[in-house]
Amino acid sequence: MKLNRETPSLVAVTGGIGSGKSEVLSAIADCGYTVISCDRVAADAYRKYFFKRKIKKAFPSAVKGFIFTKIDKKQIAESAFFDDEEYNRLLKEVTLPVYEETLKIAKKQKGTVFVEVPLLFECEKQGDFDRIIVVLRDKDVRAESVEKRSGLKKSEIAARMARQIDYDNTDFSMYRVLINDGDLEKLKVSAAKLAAVTEKELEAKKHEI
């Protein structure tokens, strides 16, 4: 299929919690490419009044104050990741709206745009992208990394991983894969090379007759 030259080419960067998606996106950004992160879009959303009202309606006990409201995201997570109903509510009220806003922003850009999407496969959004990069890392190493950076308990990390696809046993042969084996410099170099190759592929596709 020939791509429209006027629209941006969208590349998803995804992977399990603690896989190194953010480091990959940062390395790609350092190369001068346009990058967008769902997490950053979410952070902006949490500061907006209408979004706080929406969260208060969905998770009333997690929003404190009236004029200067504050959202207790830890409380939301504690309930959502251990309860199916609460988790589905989180997806509906937070995850999917943030994703849609991220995609909307990405589509307004030009050229090749790399978008970090944490729950790409879980939300079945593969079809929104021209290419997909999957960052893979040993599960135990991922858990250790998350524990160090976030202070979450092992049970909390396990609950989050349980909500994601099994990255250790899923076939990703149809996508581009980046292996994060703990060597950050190697990961950055690989990310930069893959970004360049992906851009060339997509540009060539746009010029197909």
Gist of the model:
It contains eight helices and seven strands; from the N terminus they run βαβααββααββααβα.
Helix/strand order = EHEHHEEHHEEHHEH
Q: Beta fraction of the residues? A: 5-15%
The percentage helix is: 40-55%
CATH level 4 superfamily:
P-loop containing nucleotide triphosphate hydrolases
**What is the CA-based Rg, rounded?**
18 Å
Distance between the termini: 10 Å
- Strand order within the widest sheet? 2-5-1-6-7
What do you see in this structure?
The protein contains eight helices and seven strands, in the order βαβααββααββααβα. The chain has 209 residues and is α/β, with parallel strands linked by helices. It has a single domain, classed as Rossmann fold. The chain has a five-stranded parallel sheet with strand order 2-5-1-6-7, with helices on both faces. The longest helix has 24 residues.
Features:
single chain; 209 residues; alpha/beta; Rossmann fold; five-stranded parallel beta sheet; two-stranded antiparallel ribbon; 7 strands; 50% helix; globular
